[in-house]
């Protein structure tokens, strides 16, 4: 199973829009996810720590995460969002490594949405202040009444294959030897498949065809939907986009397998990343 | 080919971030997409109309759409965005019907992005004013320097099958007899497949399994990425979510085929919608 998927919470979507039912959930049985800013609070066993609503500041904005075996679960919007939201930081990775898959999914979803609230306290349409609504699945402008919804950004991440070898790239600023699948945001006006073809052409100069979907994963830094794809190239001649990438190389199946096993020509992406899953899929194909 | 895909423009992504190259594109050869607010301007042949940059107001915010056979193409951000951005309006549908697929793709992409700019003149983080950047593929806050990026919202739209019959729903407020695939936004913290399962359970009470991806389409009202999927149900007992749907029914392959041909028990979705494509895929499966 992919990291950040498989949350045990029932989002109880319909209850969010029902103020009475939502108010009813804010009771003594409700659990509040322990967060230090955006970092997960952990108990002594290394699981996510939970408190009660009494732990929240009086003026706190509370997000309804869902029901856990009937128990309402909330998280508190922190004072500030992630200052560099596109990057995961080492402390988060360390915490992530100790969480069970189930806890990781709950933390990831909660982090994305409370971070969104922290960075959307004003209305993009008129500049007015906004307030939380529908249990945290909406914000409303106090001035122009515009509604705003949590954001999820689709990102295409792709394995491109030519003659039995796989194209992997090393991003600018990455350590020597670390390689992963190319990726980029799907833009307004394009399908997933068109996004894949554009990104690959832009970053590598390679034309890609026969794009297929493999798997998807939510990625909470800050809130991407990673859409994993595979495609074929007709040529292996590279024109590397040096504004984004340090290098691109083609790797054989044996090299990919060895690297996934920790003993190959490149450092593979971490197990939590969909890129790892995609490489494993390709190795076993 | 799905409507709104297949644009002939080269987005020339790398040039957006290069102020010199971008300034060089703003020349006498550049073309300006004719828009009346968000409505497409059309020439006498029913094609998209284009002018020159001289047609833009002096203080216009210009979005670089890409290169058309080397010619730089721009669109102007209108005074106001779509007031009801989730709904296409009849005048747009009429205009859409006369455009070639290629023109429709250019219009759809341009509409999404200029509408986003028109509704994002302020910084969601601090309330300050923002200015256009990177040829319209970014906005920057004049106050806190936050960067903002055009938004694309992933929506799962799904065919759910049980015992050779397909689940289709009629939305609240839709005319009698009009049915389509269920759909809903993929939320932070879930994969596409999890979004499909949650939406189906929430709207129909039906558990879905073995979800597979079929196709995707950009939808410019205002800027969705429609992700078409298929899944199987283990049961056909329905618990309809009456806050969102007027009714749900199960249709046989023959009924779907007849309805797509205009002579069946329900009015099928229009050819431009991915739902139409999905139904056709299922009919021919």
Automatic annotation (TrEMBL), chains A, B:
Its EC number is 3.6.1.22. One of its GO terms (molecular function) is hydrolase activity. InterPro entries: NAD-cap_RNA_hydrolase_NudC (IPR050241), NADH_PPase-like_N (IPR015375), NudC-like_C (IPR049734), NUDIX_hydrolase-like_dom_sf (IPR015797), NUDIX_hydrolase_CS (IPR020084), NUDIX_hydrolase_dom (IPR000086), Znr_NADH_PPase (IPR015376). Residues 150-274 form the Nudix hydrolase domain. Its cofactor is Zn(2+); Mg(2+). It catalyses: a 5'-end NAD(+)-phospho-ribonucleoside in mRNA + H2O = a 5'-end phospho-adenosine-phospho-ribonucleoside in mRNA + beta-nicotinamide D-ribonucleotide + 2 H(+). Pfam families: NUDIX, NUDIX-like, Zn_ribbon_NUD. It comes from the Bacteria. Keywords: Hydrolase, Magnesium, Metal-binding, NAD. Belongs to the Nudix hydrolase family. NudC subfamily. This is NAD(+) diphosphatase. The gene is nudC.
């Amino acid at each position: 199973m992919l990291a950040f998927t498989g949350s045990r919470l029932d989002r109880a979507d319909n209850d969010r829009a029902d103020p009475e039912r939502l108010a009813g959930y804010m009771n003594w049985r409700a659990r509040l996810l322990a967060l230090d800013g955006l970092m997960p609070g952990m108990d002594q066993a290394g699981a996510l720590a939970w408190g009660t609503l009494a732990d929240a500041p009086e003026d706190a904005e509370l997000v309804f995460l869902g029901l856990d075996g009937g128990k309402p679960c909330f998280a508190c919007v922190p004072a500030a969002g992630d200052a560099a939201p596109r990057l995961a930081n080492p402390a988060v990775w360390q915490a992530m490594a100790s969480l069970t898959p189930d806890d990781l999914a709950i933390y990831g979803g909660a982090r994305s949405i409370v971070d969104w609230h922290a960075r959307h306290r004003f209305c993009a349409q008129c500049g007015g202040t906004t307030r939380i609504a529908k249990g945290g699945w909406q914000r409303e402008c106090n001035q122009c009444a515009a509604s705003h919804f949590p954001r999820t950004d689709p990102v295409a991440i792709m394995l491109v294959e030519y003659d039995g070898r796989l194209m992997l790239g090393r991003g600018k600023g990455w350590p020597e030897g670390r390689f992963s699948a190319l990726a980029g945001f799907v833009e307004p006006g394009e399908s997933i498949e068109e996004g894949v073809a554009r990104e690959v052409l832009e970053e590598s100069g390679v034309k890609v065809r026969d794009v297929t979907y493999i798997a998807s994963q939510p990625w909470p830094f800050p809130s991407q939907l990673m859409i994993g794809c595979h495609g074929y190239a007709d040529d292996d001649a590279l024109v590397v986009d040096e504004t984004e990438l340090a290098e691109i190389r083609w790797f054989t199946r044996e090299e990919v397998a060895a690297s996934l096993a920790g003993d190959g020509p490149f450092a593979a992406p971490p197990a939590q990343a969909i890129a790892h899953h995609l490489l494993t899929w390709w190795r076993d194909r």
